[in-house]
Design brief:
The mean pLDDT is 96. The protein is α/β, with parallel strands linked by helices. The chain has helices at 15-25, 41-50, 71-91, 116-138, 158-168, 180-186, 190-197, 221-230, 248-265; strands spanning 2-6, 29-33, 55-59, 95-98, 141-144, 174-179, 201-206, 236-239. The termini are close together. The protein has one domain: Alpha-Beta Barrel (TIM Barrel), CATH 3.20.20.150.
C-alpha cells in the first residue's frame, strides 16, 4: 500500500512545488482535481515527468449530473467523464473517481411502477456499461465512490457499490474506491465491509472520523489496513481531508508517519 496526497492539500505556489513538498512529507503519489485538468494537461505531464511523484487518480471535476432529470446536464456529465477518463489514461492514473449524484433524487418517481431510486440504479448500470468500456479502452478505471447519508441518498456503503459493479461486470473498466471517512459513518464494521468488497476496491481515500488528517480522530486505521492487506490491496491511499494548524507541511509529514506506523502494525 502506498500513500498519496491531493494536490489541493499540499503547500506550494506551483504544481512543481506541491509535488516536491508531497514527496518531502513522505507521500508517493498525487491525486488531482478533475476541474480544469484538461486545459493544463501538458503542464501536468511535464511537472510529473520531472518529479518522482506520479498521478494516482483524478477526483471528479466533471460538470453536470449523471442522474439528473435534465438531458443537457446528463450529456455534459457524460462528455466530461469520457474526456477525464482519456486524461487519466494519458497520465497513467489508476482512474477517475465518480459520484453518481449528490443530495436527493432528481429523476421523477414513477411509483407504483418503480421508485425514483429503482430507476436511478437501473439507469446507472446502463450508463456505467458504456463508461466502463470507455475507461478500459483508455487504459484506466472509472472508480465508483460511496458517500454517506448526509451527502447522497443512493450509493452509501461498499456493498451498494459492489452490487452496481457486479451488475456492470467490467472489472477492467469499472471498480470502486473506499473512503475511511464515509465508512466511519455508514459501515457497521469497516474491516468486514472491506472484506466483502474484496478486489473491487482499487483506490482508497484517507480521512479520520473528524474529516481531518488521520491521527486527529478515532478511526481504527490499523484494523482497516489489515483488512486491505488481507484482500491483497496494494494500491494508493490518498488523503482527502482538512489539515489542522498553520504549518501544512509539518502536519502532512506527521500524518504520513502516523499512517506508516499503522501499516507496520499489520505486518
Amino acid at each position: 500500500m502506498k500513500l498519496a496526497c491531493q494536490e489541493g492539500m499540499a503547500p506550494g505556489a506551483t504544481l512543481e512545488e506541491k509535488l516536491a513538498n508531497i514527496e518531502q512529507a513522505g507521500y508517493e503519489g498525487v491525486e488531482l482535481w478533475g476541474g480544469g485538468l484538461v486545459e493544463r494537461l501538458e503542464d501536468v505531464k511535464r511537472a510529473t515527468k520531472k518529479a518522482s511523484v506520479p498521478v494516482t487518480t483524478i477526483c471528479a471535476g466533471y460538470r453536470g449530473t449523471p442522474l439528473s432529470n435534465e438531458p443537457e446536464s446528463r450529456k455534459q456529465a457524460a462528455d466530461d467523464i469520457k474526456t477525464l477518463l482519456n486524461a487519466a489514461g494519458e497520465l497513467g492514473a489508476t482512474g477517475l473517481i465518480f459520484v453518481p449524484i449528490f443530495g436527493k433524487a432528481q429523476i421523477n418517481d414513477l411509483s407504483p411502477w418503480k421508485t425514483a431510486e429503482e430507476l436511478e440504479r437501473e439507469f446507472l448500470v446502463e450508463l456505467l456499461g458504456d463508461w466502463a468500456e470507455h475507461a478500459r479502452k483508455a487504459g484506466t478505471l472509472l472508480l465508483l465512490e460511496p458517500l454517506n447519508r448526509y451527502e447522497t441518498h443512493l450509493i452509501k456503503t461498499l456493498r451498494d457499490a459492489v452490487q452496481i459493479c457486479e451488475k456492470v461486470n467490467n472489472p477492467k473498466g469499472l471498480k470502486m474506491m473506499a473512503d475511511f471517512f464515509h465508512m466511519s459513518i455508514e459501515e457497521r464494521d469497516i474491516p468486514t465491509s472491506i472484506g466483502i468488497a474484496d478486489d473491487w476496491i482499487a483506490h482508497i481515500h484517507l480521512a479520520d472520523s473528524t474529516r481531518e488528517l488521520p491521527g486527529y480522530g478515532h478511526t481504527d486505521f490499523a484494523a482497516g489496513f489489515a483488512a486491505l492487506r488481507e484482500i491483497g490491496f496494494d494500491g494508493y491511499m490518498a488523503l482527502e481531508c482538512g489539515i489542522p494548524g498553520e504549518d501544512k507541511l509539518a502536519e502532512l509529514t506527521k500524518s504520513a508517519q502516523y499512517l506508516k506506523a499503522r501499516m507496520s502494525d499489520t505486518e
